[in-house]
Amino acid sequence: MGWKSLTLTGMGRVGNQTLTSQNKTVAESISNGVEMHLFEVFEAKKYVYLGVVNLASEPYQEEQLDDNGQKRQVWVFPLRLKENQKKILLPDKLIKMKEVLREKKVKKMADSDLENRARNARRKSSKRKSILFIYERDPYVTEFAKRWAKGIYQLCDQPAPYFNKNGEPYLHTHHIEWLS
Q1: Is residue 1, in this structure, part of any structural domain at all?
Q2: Phi, psi (5° rounding) for residue 46?
Q3: Which pTM does this prediction carry?
Q4: Boundaries of domain holding 61
Q5: Are 60 and 147 in the same domain?
Q6: Are 53 and 114 found together in one domain?
Q7: Statement to judge: residues 95 and 130 lie in one domain
Q8: Which residues contact 175 (CB under 8 A, 6 or more apart)?
Q9: Which of 8, 62, 151, 153 keeps 20 to 30 A from 47, CA to CA?
């Protein structure tokens, strides 16, 4: 995989998360002897095994949106692959496929839900090493920016000169602060 650390968001999809049940087990994994195995989903019901992980530092809480679009407190667990373990490099195709599926889901969202997700998105983009470095863009922010622009480039105030296969104006969003 190539990363030194990553984060796992705790269990519980609606409302504030508590440090009970599985969240407690993960938080106490150093002392309770529970071995944690990391899997990632790139396609529905298909899991890719990434290896054994340990807590990298103390769990902490942060504000995120739940499945209903409401702000709530979640537990975040910093993890890292267990030492002396071969890192798994994922094919770019898997990562791109996951991104395409997320983008399709986001395109179906109502404008108000999309705006809420974009305005409450994490401020820092994540990155992962595959066979290449790929910056994972937040699809809520990207789709919100495109809808907000209504097919007009902000810098030149001109309509998009191209259309995608669905007949929508083709706009490529850019970051105010460079990712790389």
Answers
A1: no
A2: -125, 120
A3: 0.58
A4: 6-81
A5: no
A6: no
A7: yes
A8: none
A9: 62
